[in-house]
Task: structure prediction
Amino acid sequence: MDWGMANRMARIINPKTGKAVMLALDHGYFLGPTHRIEEPRKTITPLLPYADTIMLTRGVLRNCVDPESCANVVLRVSGGVSIVGPALEDEGITTSIKDALRLNVAGVGISVFIGSSHERQTLLNLAELVNQGQEYGVPVLGITAVGKELEKRDARYLSLCCRICAELGTHIVKTYYCEDFEKVTTSCPAPIVIAGGPKLETEMDVFELTYNAIQQGAVGVDMGRNIWQNDYPVAIIRAIRSIVHEGLKPKQAHKLFLDVKSEHEKAAANA
Ligand code: R5P
Result:
């Protein structure tokens, strides 16, 4: 691996632990002002110290993240669709590799919609981005999107998607956790991170999801709503981090969550 590519990969996957905590904040690219990220700067700023990378679009990056924060960025570079439009799958590449380099990104991210009528187009978008990434030393995060069909998230389908992304040269694959997740990780030669999906009922559910994914071969998370839609986002990201990087068990992470939450409550009461 060339130095630039290796250096960028190390900014995403911590070489000391071999793991990654990515904070996903890109939802607005097709959902608009999603609940609890209506004002991105307010959501992002307190979480920055606890994320190895933030994943977002260039518009939110330029307007809502200070360059002095030294955040590592995985830039969402696919889009062109909206939740109210005719086809969520009809994505194109929205951002040039030149602009991504100008933003000093650690990587770029793009969705593929396998099994949809836009399968070929989104896979060729991914392949083209990998070609550009190889040329400039920029890792590509391939995201196995399911659009509105959440029921598609089983091991058979996700193994197919992850393997195809890896075969096309994707450097890191982002997918969903599912039953028999080990089948997905063992058949994908590229490292896998998991999305969190819609907000889960309890914090323990989030910790168990994270723990199980790591145990079954994921290198980390690229999680959004289960962090910033929680009432205590700093407490939950710190607990998730402890599972990913330090190997804490769900109950230990939950204790850390409660400790940090109570510190925040005390600070708020004294403010
Ligand atoms: C969705 O299309 C985006 O790629 C999100 O980054 C992804 O779904 C992860 O966020 P969440 O954990 O909220 O599912």
